[in-house]
Specification:
8-stranded mixed beta sheet; 6-stranded mixed beta sheet; single chain; alpha/beta
Length: about 250
């Protein structure tokens, strides 16, 4: 199994960038399945329905989200209908969509889960309990499993990975937009990386306009964020059976 996980997509230009390049990368790396976190695709705040269509057409097989999951209202009905897009499982149950999905892969099923961390973030539900409940509910219904932990704290991501080591095949983190250099196979066999990084403009601050971020930090006044101009770069990681994950920049 060769699964490519793509870090937070920041801005519409990053969606276009993947449209132009993703299929070539998948051919070169013999990728079987692509998962992308797209919660910042619509000018930092969420993902819109048209962007979701474009990402699927570009070769993405499943989309995960995060704390900005509901930034674009036109995505709400899509979340209810399309099992290829999931929002964090530890959101309130009345919110649109599902926190996990089962999708076909190589004649079997892949379980993909998404949770938000709680450290330095909102008061979401317990991500540990959410993952545990999903694994119990779907036991026997899948042959491979992946968890996207959308969280601020590296310790919280690693703690989740330690808790579910050997029970989930792949665990990776998203949200910080900075790729970590700790890709590894944990003692019980789970492939892990604390953060994939981002797919977006590299000349700003985490994909955001430098001027807007500096104004926020120096004035403490509300500032409208927009994506930065300049070069786009994609950070992703290729997870393969029993091998140390491979970071890929394209």
């Amino acid at each position: 199994m060769r699964i490519l996980a793509i870090g937070d997509i920041v801005g519409d230009r990053a969606v276009t960038y993947l449209e132009e390049r993703l299929r070539r990368v998948c051919r070169e790396k013999n990728v079987d399945f692509v998962i992308a976190n797209a919660e910042n695709a619509a000018e930092i705040r969420g993902l819109n329905a048209r962007q979701a269509e474009r990402l699927f057409a570009a070769g993405v097989d499943a989309i995960t989200l995060g704390n900005h999951a509901f930034g674009q209202r036109d995505l709400y009905p899509v979340l209810e209908e399309d099992r290829r897009i999931i929002r964090p499982a530890n959101f309130p149950p009345q919110t649109p969509g599902m926190g996990y999905t089962l999708l076909p892969i190589d004649g079997g099923k892949i379980l993909i889960m998404n949770v938000c961390g709680r450290a330095f973030m909102e008061a979401y539900g317990d991500p540990f309990a959410s993952v545990e409940n999903i694994l119990k509910r779907e036991a026997g219904n899948y042959g491979f499993s992946v968890l996207d932990v959308h969280a601020e704290a590296t310790s919280e991501k690693l703690a989740l990975a330690r808790r579910f080591d050997g029970r989930i095949n792949i665990i990776f983190g998203t949200h910080t937009h900075v790729p970590t250099a700790d890709e590894q196979i944990l003692p019980k066999g789970t492939a892990y990386q604390t953060d994939l990084g981002m797919t977006g403009p590299i000349d700003g601050v985490l994909g955001v306009s430098t001027e807007a971020v500096l104004e926020r930090f120096t004035s403490l006044l509300p500032t409208r964020f927009s994506t930065a101009p300049g070069e786009i770069r994609a950070n992703a990681t290729l997870f393969t059976d029993n091998s140390t994950p491979e970071r890929i920049v394209f």
